[in-house]
Amino acid sequence: MKTLNIDLKAVGQKRLLQLDELEEFWNEAYENAKIYKERTKRWHDRNLVRKEFQPGQQVLLFNSRLKLFPGKLKSRWSGPFTVVRVFPYGAVELKGEGPNTFKVNGKRLKLYLGEDIYKCFVAF
Fold it and tell me: pTM of whole model > 0.70?
């Protein structure tokens, strides 16, 4: 050791400084990731559109099982169905062409505008 002229105390201090710098770098990276995550969450939440259905509205139902049988011309939306009742927490009771009603998750629905669009074209 003495022949190489190495000061162990100085080497130890330098290594501790390097470890402190590395820890500061990790903390800064963690904070930046946290800020990025919060910003993207705010952006995503701001662009969400709330779906609120009223009884009597016409809606289309998304058929998620159709993904198993892919086809270019098959529509994944079926309907239109009529909203009978809206339950809290997003559940909706629908009525099809028959007398039976059934409950579905409101996230699987979208507003049906077919008749309104047809009326717009007739007006021209």
Answer: no
